[in-house]
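Standup notes
- DV: blocked on the single-chain target, sequence here:
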Amino acid sequence: MIAKKLAELGIDLPVAAMPAFQYVPVTIHDRIAFVSGQLPRRGDNFITGKAGGEVNLEQAREAARLCILQGLACLTQALGSLDRVERILKITGFVASAPGFNQQPKVIDAASELLVEVFGEAGRHARSAVGVAELPRNSAVEIEMIVGLR
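- DV (later): unblocked, structure below
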C-alpha cells in the first residue's frame, strides 16, 4: 500500500495544485496516466531561480523532489489511490539553468530516487533531464510524468 509507504518515509503529499491555465493536471488514456508538468511548490511559494546561479545544486534537487510530490498529489486526486500505479514509465525534468550549468541529471536524480523510494522497482523509469533558459513562474525545476496503471 503506497499510502503506508509514504507514511513510513515521513512524506505528506501536498494538496494537488489547480491549474492556472487551460489544461488538466492528469489525463488518462487506456492504462496510462499523463501528469502535466509540476512546479516546485511549497504552499503558495515556489523554489525560483536558475540552477548554478541563485539556486545551488541541493536546492535544485529539493525542487525536483517537490515537483514529484506535487505530481503524486495530482495522481492521487485523479486515481483515488496511488495503489493503482503499476509502474512509473517516464519522467521528463526541465531545469532552469544558468550559463555553464550542466548538472541537470544530478538535479533530476533526486526525483528518480524519490520515486524508487516510494514505488520500489516499479518506480524505476526512463528519463530525460533537460536544461532550459526559463520556466513558468521563474521556477527552478518542472517535471512531468507518464505512469502505467493497473
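- Follow-up: The radius of gyration is 14 Å.
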